[in-house]
Amino acid sequence: MYEDVEEILLDEDAIRSEVARMGREISKDYADRRLHLIAVLKGSVVFLSDLMRALTVPVTADFISISSYGTPTPAGVVSIRKDLDEPIEGRDVLVVEGIIDTGLTLSYLLRNFRTRNPASLKVCAFINKRAQRIIDLTVEYVGREIGEQFVVGYGLDYRQRYRNLPVIGVLKPSILDRHT
Ligand code: PRP
């Protein structure tokens, strides 16, 4: 996998310290509350598993899977493939994302979740890629801001591969070019 990576943006130590920082920040903000994490499959799973262990407040977790139609996606054309198992009404919800790119996925999810009347609704993303943002969003907790690079690893994929890479790396353009 490493042979397909041009540059390592976050190595394992950097990831560990970002997650620990986020864990401290979130635990402080939600002190004396119960936090309900909603992970957006599949890109968030590695981050979620680390983040939840860095939190010192009681947490519960649920998962949602969505599909989007085509790329580029017409704004908001997203559908739920696997919905939440539990209601979120009255709960303090934190959406956990691996990466936010155009913002279309999250914008759809936030609109959808708001209709379910949570007590609070915030967002946590390990990677925030604002360069390609189509919809402006507030992201309360961010691991790392990146530029336009195509990144993989730590749960993030390219054609379903590289999710198990333990670092966040920039994919070589030659790998992307093969499929464009
Ligand atoms: C990725 C990522 C986010 C979404 C962000 O998911 O995990 O959910 O894209 O992109 P956006 O801000 O442009 O909407 P993807 O559809 O690749 O599925 P995956 O999580 O299963 O890899």
Structure characteristics:
180 residues, globular, single chain, binds 1-O-pyrophosphono-5-O-phosphono-alpha-D-ribofuranose, 3-stranded antiparallel beta sheet
Let me know the number of strands.
9
Spatial sequence of strands, sheet with the most strands: 4-3-2-5-6-7
Task: Detail the poorly predicted runs.
Answer: none
Structural class by sheet pairing and helices:
alpha/beta
Distance from first to last alpha carbon = 20 Å
Instruction: Give the overall shape, derived from the CA principal axes.
Output: globular
Which distinct ligands sit in these coordinates?
A: 1-O-pyrophosphono-5-O-phosphono-alpha-D-ribofuranose
Order of helices and strands: EHEHEEEHEEEEH
Tally the helices. 4
| Average pLDDT over all residues | 93
Amount of helix: 10-25%
How much of the residues is beta strand, in percent?
Answer: 25-35%
Describe the protein's topology:
Elements: E1 5-10, H1 12-29, E2 35-41, H2 45-54, E3 59-68, E4 78-82, E5 92-100, H3 104-114, E6 120-129, E7 141-146, E8 151-152, E9 168-171, H4 173-177
Parallel strand pairs: 2-3, 2-5, 5-6, 6-7
Antiparallel strand pairs: 1-9, 3-4, 8-9
Helix pairs in contact: 1-2
Bound molecules: 1-O-pyrophosphono-5-O-phosphono-alpha-D-ribofuranose.
The site of 1-O-pyrophosphono-5-O-phosphono-alpha-D-ribofuranose has 16 residues, from β2, β5 and α3.
